[in-house]
Amino acid sequence: MSTIYIGERQSGKTTMLIEMSEKTGATIVVATYPMAKYIQLLAAQMGKKIPVPITVTNYIRLLASGGLGKSEKYLIDELQMMLSAMNVEAATVDCDCIEVLRGQQKEGL
Q1: CA dihedral sign of residues 23, 27, 31, 34
Q2: Per residue in 41-79, pLDDT tens?
Q3: Closest CA to 74 of 49, 96, 50
Q4: Pairing of strands 54-55, 74-76
Q5: Is 17 inside any structural domain?
Q6: Tally of structural domains, the chain
Q7: How far apart are CA 38 and CA 73, in angstroms?
């Protein structure tokens, strides 16, 4: 089951994904190339070895070409940016898949 982590800015969400990526080998997917470069730099500063982060555009190309293996795992950073870029007005999720980081509370959850 997928999990969505929520938290305020600077609450450690990206750092957590970098740590998860190093532990699992999962690739981090981001909205833009500058974000991918930032995560790669941050991981290096943390001394973490992770797969090179990719953009959602690269992910979609891999998906369309059949280049995604069923065993490969992905971690998405800043999901709301991707949904916004897709012009998504609303989405639903199973509330059992949402975890709040560092005691942050989000209304309605």
Answers
A1: positive
A2: 999 999 999 999 999 889 889 888 888 777 789 999 999
A3: 50
A4: unpaired
A5: yes
A6: 1
A7: 20
8 Å CB contact between 77 and 39? yes
In whole angstroms, how far apart are CA 89 and each of 3, 104, 107? 21, 24, 18
pLDDT tens readout for residues 14-41:
999 999 999 999 999 999 999 999 999 9
Predicted TM-score of the model (pTM): 0.83
Residue 87 is assigned to a structural domain of this protein: yes
Q: Is residue 108 part of a domain?
A: no
Domain enclosing residue 21, as ranges: 4-100
- Using DSSP, state whether 77 is helix, strand or coil: coil
